[in-house]
């Protein structure tokens, strides 16, 4: 029984120390961002604290790790990146052009926002190349970049303009 009480007391002390270290870290972030401006420091502190608490509750561990890696010392940016990545991950699960999806995922394996950007650009450029009328320029572009519609469009446009 004494061991359990000692363990619980140690756990409470550690959690208190951890909370103080997070609090200190958040205050330092705010002070660094706005030295000498107490009102802005409070604003940044509150925003960081809210984002820190939010990030403690998120469920997609893959995306959470990505956000933490991108912004290890900025919880507000982690929150922003996490939300954007989760939305873009869901988008990428629903895309229909698997050929273009492969282009996007091959280029950016862990970054769903960049996958979405590349996917959308490649789909638009693929449609453009399907409508291209200069057969010789189109063939040349496709031969140079068989797996990249954006580069095909670039080469094609250069050739016809």
What does this structure look like?
The chain is an all-alpha fold. Helix content is 82%, strand content 0%. The protein has 8 helices and no strands. The chain has helices at residues 2-33, 38-55, 61-70, 75-94, 98-107, 112-131, 135-144, 149-160. The longest helix has 32 residues, at 2-33. The protein is elongated and about 80 Å long. The chain starts with a helix and ends with a helix.
Estimated structural class: mainly alpha
Query: Secondary-structure element order, as H and E?
Result: HHHHHHHH
Number of helices: 8
Low-confidence stretches: 9-18
- Give the overall silhouette: elongated
Mean pLDDT: 90
End-to-end distance, in Å?
A: 84 Å
How many strand elements? 0
- Sheet-strand content, in percent, reads under 5%
The largest β sheet comes out as: none
As a whole number of angstroms, the C-alpha radius of gyration is: 24 Å
Give the helix level as a range of percent.
Answer: over 70%
Distinctive features:
single chain, 161 residues, mainly alpha, 82% helix
Can you lay out the helices and strands and say which pair or pack?
Elements: H1 2-33, H2 38-55, H3 61-70, H4 75-94, H5 98-107, H6 112-131, H7 135-144, H8 149-160
